[in-house]
Amino acid sequence: MSESPVAMSTTRERPAWSTSGYLMLVLFLILAALFLWRLTSFAGGEPTDSEVATFLGSIFLLPISLVVIAKGFYMIQPNQAAAITLFASYRGTDRNAGLRWVWPWMGKTRISVRANNVVSEKLKVNDLRGNPIEIATNVVWRVADTAQALFDVDDYKAFVLVQIESAVRSIGSRYPYDDIEHHEVTLRGHHEVINAELRDELNARLSLAGITVDECGLTHLAYAPEIAGAMLRRQQAEAVIAARKKLVEGAVTMVEMALQQLSEKNVVHLDDERRAAMVSNLMVVLCGERETQPIVNTGTLYQ
Description:
Layout: E1 19-20, H1 21-43, H2 49-71, E2 73-76, E3 80-86, E4 89-94, E5 98-101, E6 107-112, E7 116-119, E8 123-126, E9 132-143, H3 146-151, H4 156-174, H5 191-206, E10 211-223, H6 225-264, H7 272-287
């Protein structure tokens, strides 16, 4: 029987114990002054045996204390954190800015929690209808959980870049580039919807590394060069068809309104043949691309 894969344990950030480095700096200066005083005080006079023993003890202990205190100092800049470890065991994260101090045998790994901006490379993707397109995005991300970023992935910055590329390819293949006929959600016409879905996709992918995405948006969107010319002609044709359709719908409505009002107000009574001729003339006038030249009929309607 095959063994089931072992699930990876998730590390969660927690506060680490640390103290103010300024207090320890004062203690360091006091011990350093005491050490110098012991050296100078022992130089003069005839010391007794007890004084010699005290001097040797202070000479041995004070330098060790100074070294222990000095090795525990570390600095945290604003919007920076330090992960504290003890013999490769995670002990917590210190987010307090300024001069800090922990025991010198504790490991300290600094990590930035500031916002980062990444502009992805132009990727060639097939959209929902199989048309090759070029797409790129801009992503603003930051580290939300320092423990996950440092200990759950090998290199969280490289992980972010790979997941951005995967998410962009997924979103690009999920929607058509453009659509006039079916009125669907498209990459070109619904930026807010696409950006929101891309942000959700990235947050889901990057949650493993403790990364959160604050903002993202497409910076480049175009058909691939090999089909750009053909797709441009197609877009132009679809735009012309859509405009013609709208024009005909409006013309039919206007003709229907004109005939209805003429009939209701008894302006003129037309038989079916003359009504058809009037409809034809009105449609030519309303739908024609050029200005029409009126012809004045000086006779009757039947001449």
